[in-house]
Amino acid sequence: MSHDSNKLIAIAGGGLLGRLLAWQLLRKGFAVHLYEAGAFTPSPAAAFTAAGMISPYSEAVVSDYSVYRMGLFALDQWQQWVADLQRSPEQPPLFHRQGSLVVAHPQDVSELQQFQHELRHILPGEGGYRTVNGADIRQLEPDLQPGFQQGLLLENEGHLDNRGLLDQLFADIQALGGQCFEFTPVLHVKPHTLVLEHEEKNYPLVIDCRGLGARSEWPELRGVRGETLHVQTREIQLQRPVRLMHPRYQLYIVPKPNHRFMIGATQIESEDRTPISLQSSLELSSALYTLSPAFAEARIVETGVNLRPAFMNNMPRVVVNDGIITANGLFRHGYLLAPAVVCNVMAAILNTADAPFNSYLRSAYDHTQP
Ligand SMILES: Cc1cc2nc3c(=O)[nH]c(=O)nc-3n(C[C@H](O)[C@H](O)[C@H](O)COP(=O)(O)OP(=O)(O)OC[C@H]3O[C@@H](n4cnc5c(N)ncnc54)[C@H](O)[C@@H]3O)c2cc1C
């Protein structure tokens, strides 16, 4: 595919935002150079470790209202984007929209009720969720243990096969002629310029999507540690993510391809990337076991640790200056907010008058100032 070299854009960071932007730009006829510090697959990105839940209702209770609004947008945008990827019908679907189920053990039901009260208070009069009883739960998820008597079905929520998505985006970027450079760290991003280890490269426009790797430009960026377990078993099937309410920790389990389940995730104010702690692995695995004893024979096939890139207010930022655009700070909402962020950045590049979610995302910060 031929591209106009005046429309050449360089992207630093080949995680979630970097890949989505590269793909969108290529589809609009731009040429793209995508630089990644690590490998493209498996990827060191937070996006690779993530659960891939699109959960605006669950997040509404613990986040700013704008996260909910942008999350609703994401549900439709992901449906569209996944349909636009060059995927054959035999391949497993990347996006699932069967909602998510919130349950609590009888002794913890007050946690569930509190969650429901908060949801009603924050989203008065809005649908998208309903209470379910024991019989409903058994019908929705027959493989859960039968003791759950109350729950909430967040009907509108969805989840992605995030690793399948990252691989598919990479394949589509290459198929569309994008040039991808792995193991090529970008040390600094300046207007029109990427500083690599041994050279500086100039471009009409550069986009900084390095997540936590952009700290040289954003000293206030911090990493928030998240730990995960992956288990594999053929004994259990789940149709949708299940959240377990508990007084001390809230955990979720997300079905993944190949009979795998991801259990996550801790949220710890630490930038420690060392392996999962014994306490976290005990909490995650015992919560899993209480969802169904059939998980007892599941094999632990992976443990994961990564850092969520976050600003102090845990809100994302898009900064647009001449020759440089930065998008960062997606925290625990990367998949939930990426559609809003990517559409906002695309609007800046295409000079669209009404960029979506400008008031939530755009931040004034002049990269040309020292
Ligand atoms: C355990 C866990 C669970 C999560 N679950 C969810 C979830 O269910 N739903 C949800 O919406 N979000 C979730 N998230 C959050 C989500 O993963 C992040 O918000 C998202 O990945 C941020 O996207 P990003 O592109 O900004 O950063 P990343 O995905 O981290 O990508 C940044 C990329 O830049 C590269 N890079 C870094 N430095 C450099 C450099 N100097 N030069 C070149 N490249 C560089 C990195 O290697 C990486 O590939 C979760 C995160 C974690 C850790």
TrEMBL record:
Signal peptide: none annotated. The keyword NADP does not apply. This is D-amino-acid oxidase. It comes from the Bacteria. GO terms for molecular function: D-amino-acid oxidase activity; FAD binding. Keywords: FAD, Flavoprotein, Oxidoreductase. Residues 9-341 form the FAD dependent oxidoreductase domain. The keyword Aminoacyl-tRNA synthetase does not apply. It catalyses: a D-alpha-amino acid + O2 + H2O = a 2-oxocarboxylate + H2O2 + NH4(+). It is an enzyme of class 1 (oxidoreductase). SUPFAM superfamilies: FAD-linked reductases, C-terminal domain, FAD/NAD(P)-binding domain. One of its GO terms (biological process) is D-amino acid metabolic process. Its cofactor is FAD. Its EC number is 1.4.3.3. Belongs to the DAMOX/DASOX family.
